[in-house]
Protein 1
Amino acid sequence: MRTVQVETGGGSYPIIIGREVFPSLADRLPPGIRKVLLVSDGNVFPLFGDSLARTLAEAGLMVKPYVVDPGEKSKTLRVAEALYTVALEAGLGRGDLVAALGGGVAGDLAGFVAATYMRGVAFLQVPTTLLAQVDSSVGGKVGVNHPLGKNLIGAFHQPVLVAADLATLDTLPRREFLAGAAEVVKYGAALSEPFLRFLEQNWEGFMGGDHSVLAEVVATCCRLKAEVVARDERETGERALLNFGHTLGHALEAATGYSHYLHGEAVTVGMVLDTLIAREMKVLPAGEADRLLALLYRLGLRPPPPGLDAGPALAALRFDKKRAGGSAVFILPVRAGAARVFGGVEESLAAGVLAGYLDGHLGEER
Ligand SMILES: NC(=O)c1ccc[n+]([C@@H]2O[C@H](COP(=O)([O-])OP(=O)(O)OC[C@H]3O[C@@H](n4cnc5c(N)ncnc54)[C@H](O)[C@@H]3O)[C@@H](O)[C@H]2O)c1
Ligand SMILES: [Zn+2]
């Protein structure tokens, strides 16, 4: 079992990564907890819920499970309110615990409830998607969606422990696995050349779900994100580098009503387009661009929906720009394994690479 220690202004906590992490989990929780609200979704709870509940119950905790519908539609204030009610009725107190078992949806929702219930109770993350293990469970951002936009209502609330069991990834649908892999490649491409090289050299093992490769992948991504978050907990500077691929990725997600792409699929396209922009702006040497593109194309590019033109995506880009205070912020690679924040990217450049993708002229379409 591997451990990555995360240091933040809000405290320090371990991420434990390996197989069969559940049995050692209760020992690592802070003392004094009597009750647990266990939040999961309807796909994940039948797979791992009993096993986690049993572990917690064997440690003497009273476990109250609550299962939400799978998917983004459960990340709402309405569902959070239902969880407050369950917690109150179960007598959950200030010294008790909210646990999330599932992907980023369960984590963000349960974390938001933990951050706000009685002004904040302890929070345990048991992430079961690749995306949640390498990204959403690290960093302390929790929240729900609003009808006017995603993730607009939220808080920073660090967990007391993150327990990532690699065996949970065995049941993850392929498309979800690949979407999580996009964030993995992002860490290598934007932050670490040695990790990028590890991915290039161990790609088959990674894609095949080899647990020893996955252990290294999850631990390294958590360490990289933890280092960035420790230096920039509230996202004022360096943390922005984690948004490589996300500017145009978000624009494509928004332009398609969040229904065509999984988040990671849009990020893969965004990373390809950012790489092309960086090459065109001559901030990234051509050889380095080729290296990044080769790895990104191995993830596969989801084709756009038929008939989509660049207009809606550019409109979404302008909307984001306005919200960010007027300047379009792009995270562009400057070499394989390093990225920088760029403020003044011409819209025509973005429009050009977008059109190339939308016209089907890019890479090896899946
Ligand atoms: N807090 C953050 O810093 C942060 C960062 C990135 C993303 N997010 C959020 O994370 C969410 C996306 O997370 P996600 O991709 O994990 O989505 P998700 O939680 O919806 O999980 C994806 C799907 O996989 C299923 N599933 C989960 N684990 C499984 C398993 N082990 N076996 C079989 N099926 C399984 C789920 O039921 C769901 O249908 C979004 O809401 C996004 O906003 C948050
Ligand atoms: Zn992302």
Protein 2
Amino acid sequence: VIFAHDTIAGLTAGVDLVNSEQPGRDDLLDAAGLDGFLDKHAFTGRRARTDGELEAVRALRAEVRAVWGAPGPAEVATLVNRLLVEADARPWLTDHDGWAWHLHFTATNAPIHHRVGAEVAMALADLVRMGELDRLQICAADECRAVLVDFSRNRSRRFCDTGNCGNRQHVAAYRARRRQALAVQSFGDRS
Ligand SMILES: [Zn+2]
Ligand SMILES: [Zn+2]
């Protein structure tokens, strides 16, 4: 399976949007936090820089996260369709700034939460069309509920990239093996 560049970009933005809210941490608390997210994912267009704008983007998080919890394609389709309506998605072709012709899903002056919602929803729609919804995963680390998209060929990705879940899990596994080895060893000593 080859994922289009736009699909990967939209899904990556969706993952970061959802994961911007973690237990004890919120990366979208103010305009600067929102700037960081929008810049990282190269969202262009109009910014109102109001509390309402920030609230609207924050509200998207639960809607996008719900897709990871949906039991199947029909439920995902319902959620994605709702996101597209809410975002007032109207695809149009553009070759702005020297880029090859590509689709934008909202008008240039559309509110930023519409732009974000539409991009993420269209990328999720691609996954539905491709029958690849099992790429949507929750981090396997204990006590982490971050979401991820596994783009790997052999579907081997298990941990999010919000912190060092992969490392933490490796250390825990190493310690468990080490404890086991020591227990076996001390048993051997007694015998
Ligand atoms: Zn563009
Ligand atoms: Zn994690």
Protein 3
Amino acid sequence: LTVTDESEALRVQDIEGFPTSPGMVFGALTEAHSSWVPKGPWRGAIVWGLPLPDDVVDELTTGPTPRYARAYEEWNYRLDVLACEAEGRLAAMGIQARAIAASRVVDEKRQRGEASHRHLAASLGMGWIGRHGLLVTLKWGPALRLVTVLVDRPIAPSPKLSFVGCGACWECVDACPVGALDPPISPETLTRCSKLLEKYRRNPDIGHLICGVCLKACRDAIRNQQNDDSGNL
Ligand code: SF4
Ligand code: SF4
């Protein structure tokens, strides 16, 4: 398949052998996405999600574990390989594409990457942004890693999740050991989280700005909700 007409929306699902993952969304970018992507000719985005292993997430009751840290590294690596493969396939079709690494900080002060995978994934229909600030999906909660490829033309959209949202749930807020998600959220409350993450990064068995407690609490809340038809999230 070769796409030469730039006005044509790319149909990702028609590209033979294109990399896929259990969670995957794609679609056109609009002005509303501009703060989540780097400057450039980008008019479409593809986001892949790779769920973390259940038994690793089960460990995250009080903080990150070495197994979680290793899974975090491996999942990021697998996603980066997948995105590079997609970038190469698109380039071979004459489409300019740019893989955005799963976890590479380019703005150290604000701890930001080149693009916001979670905001792109939410706006393209994979889920919503939860009270903890992570992407929440109906299938895995926030327990997945994400990667993005940007392309220089619009993409025909994948199906969107009907918006669900956090509703009456506050499980992640209650689970946070330092009250970082307690309302009203302020720079001071968020600093409690960043200080704890920095402590974990200095731990040689962890080595990353990760915690996982609110991630596990949310995954469990989503699961419990799905086993319980009686209420709303
Ligand atoms: S735990 Fe509940 S409140 Fe927190 S992000 Fe998940 S669904 Fe939303
Ligand atoms: S990552 Fe940890 S410290 Fe930060 S908000 Fe979640 S539970 Fe709290």
Protein 4
Amino acid sequence: LELRSKKNRINRCTPVRQYSTDTNNIQEIALSKQISENLQRSLISAPSPYTEREAHLLYAFSHVVSALPMDILGQLHNFRNHLHAPSMLHIRNLPIDPILPETPIDGGRTKNKTTFVSEACLSGLAQLVGVPFGFTGEKQGELIHTISPVKGKEKAISNEGSLTTFSFHTENAYFNFRPTFIGLYCLRSDHEQRAATTVVDVRSVLPYLSSENIHWLQLPEYSVRAPLSFERAHGDVLWSAWRPILSGPIHCPELLIRLPDMKVRSPKANKAFAHFVEALDSHKVISNIFLEPGDLLFINNRMAVHGRSFFVPRWDGQDRWLQRMYVRADLWEARGANQQDFRILE
Ligand SMILES: [Fe+2]
């Protein structure tokens, strides 16, 4: 039973400029002007993450740790380590580069950005919650991903799209090795500031499900489709092995979905899935986060799924521009994935 009909349901959602739901799922930190300016001054000399990656990471880590007060370090520490921490950490007032070139229109890195303040801030903070890594097949194997609308791919249901809603998904759901956290660093908002990063914490969905629904969602009855880029490389449509949607203890479950591209193999599991998607699309459980320049959002990719509402690009060099980083608690389980480069996996 292939379920594709639920896509774009959150198009009906009218985002509001606030956290729309249970704010216990979001931890917020706002940096003072002074800390932000100090960070910008110290990170303006950061080495390039693209040509001197490890030097960049060490520089960023040491300067970010030095610049942040103990209480903020403590909040990052809690977010990383506590099993019942919020699934989102929203850090505001971070610095961006004093000279910002035009937003790329091809989804790739611009060569015109010659300082690396945002990259260093992202990678410094990311190293406080885990180990940054990437995939050779994702954004040319770079550690810092450019997320901007791509001209000609406006309707793509991916990070390259803009005019269509990007449905809820676990990052890299098809693969066994996935980021523990995703970091999204905003350099520019969309013109109308309507692009919401939509996030749902699994713990807010559970109260809407019956115990029978939960039972079926814990069984290996579901399959997710591989990313298009991966299918293109293999020349075929690829589906994962049958897996559960909810795994682990139910008071602290891990969630794994990729809407709309999922298959279900039995009617009872299908019914539970329909209830689950209905609960997921409810206004009550969706957090709409409108990222502004200098915002960094970390999302726990085990506990929460994310998507994006639609927005309208203008192709004037000032469109929405995020930088993304994948972070894993550690890379042990990926050993052997790429003998040449321990951080960029194949
Ligand atoms: Fe994503």
